[in-house]
Specification:
The protein has about 350 residues and is α+β, with helices and mostly antiparallel strands. It folds into 2 domains: about 160 residues, no CATH class; about 130 residues, Alpha-Beta Plaits, CATH 3.30.70. The protein is built from 6 helices and 17 strands. The protein has a 6-stranded mixed β-sheet with strand order 14-15-11-13-12-17, covered by helices on one side. A 4-stranded antiparallel β-sheet has the order 7-6-10-16. The protein is globular and about 55 Å long. The two termini are about 40 Å apart.
């Protein structure tokens, strides 16, 4: 059954290719797709022989092995680039095998956009009760003793469902279930005052030296915004308080390498143009962008794992890879060590 009337051809090709890799297919199915295709009757399917119908008049396309509904794929999210909601969902279906190892078990904060990125979005920490069972609920004890219910994501179905809900950017804790009190990674954020990426590159290599002097290996992540994260995998033996103490020491050691270029000052008025070494993501409950997530900026940049050798290239910058190009990379360079 042809789908060109429902979504543009480029989306269909990308979605079908992505889902073939996931073992599924792109179908036109009934509203909310309550049944797998094998159990649908002839009356459940859309009849398009009478002529094309716009997506707003049709039942949702389904894009998942368990037929997660896809609604309004034609809606433009990145106005200047013509990138649609369908393109975003297709990207997340295709990148699932790379992204899920970074997502599984982590309490998430979701950055959602109901219209275009120019219209702005909002952050969502709570998991609504109407979410399907395959979107996990992760219970977190807050500082005041109350229980917060965060969404999680541990399957391609959940990733596609959340993308269809308008989630563009996934932010996650540095710890994951079953032990949220012992982080499994440290995120050090190098945040420049300007779009100039050269100071970020210098700071990143200086930080690599600081880490290696302590026998630790870091992994560079282009944030898709302005800066770079250096991710340090942990063995989970330290609690949050111990990690924060060590992180402050790392930050201080890094600033000492170039005090005229780097600062740990939280307030922008105190930075005086220097790059901010943000160690605050080592605190319990703080989040960082998940590798391979899309950012809500023009061009649809992607938070992309890279190698230190790639970072040496002066043409590489925080937004080097985008939704249309990120999957051209052959593999996740962190896969052997992350």
């Amino acid at each position: 059954m042809p789908l060109e009337w429902l979504v543009d051809a480029s989306f269909v090709v990308r979605a079908e290719r992505a889902l073939e890799q996931l073992g599924g297919e792109l179908t036109e199915g009934p509203a909310l797709c309550p049944l797998p295709p094998s159990e649908l009757t002839e009356d459940d399917w859309i009849d398009v022989e009478g002529g094309p119908r716009h997506a707003s008049d049709a039942t949702p396309a389904c894009i998942s092995r368990s037929d997660v509904p896809l609604t309004h794929p034609e809606r433009v999210v990145f106005g200047e680039d013509g990138i649609t909601k369908g393109d975003v969902v297709a990207y997340y279906a295709a990148v699932a095998d790379r992204m899920l190892p970074h997502l599984r078990g982590r309490p998430l904060t979701l950055e959602r956009f109901r219209k275009t990125i120019a219209d702005g979005g909002f952050y969502q920490q709570g998991r609504p009760e109407h979410f399907p069972d395959y979107v996990p609920r992760i219970d977190v004890v807050r500082a005041n003793g109350e229980i917060g219910h965060h969404p999680g994501c541990d399957s391609a179905d959940a990733l596609v469902f959340l993308a269809n809900q308008g989630v563009l950017t996934f932010h996650g804790w540095a710890a994951r279930e079953p032990d949220l009190e012992h982080p499994d990674r440290l995120v050090l954020d190098l945040d420049p005052e300007t779009e100039d990426f050269a100071p970020v590159r210098r700071a990143a290599f200086a930080l690599r030296d600081v880490l290696e002097d302590r026998g630790v290996h870091g992994l560079p992540l282009l944030t898709g915004s302005r800066g770079l994260h250096v991710i340090v995998p942990l063995d989970g033996s330290s609690d949050w308080e111990e990690l924060m103490a060590w992180t402050k020491e790392l930050g201080a050691a890094l600033v000492k390498t170039a005090p005229k270029e780097l600062t740990r000052a939280f307030y922008k008025s105190q930075r005086r143009g220097r790059l901010y070494v943000d160690t605050g993501r080592a605190r319990r409950g703080h989040t960082a962008v998940i590798p391979w997530t899309v950012r809500g900026r023009p061009g649809a940049p992607v938070a992309t794992p890279i190698t230190w050798a790639e970072l040496e290239n002066p043409q590489v910058h925080a937004r080097s890879f985008t939704l249309p190009t990120a999957l051209d990379r052959p593999a996740d360079p962190w896969r052997p060590t992350a």
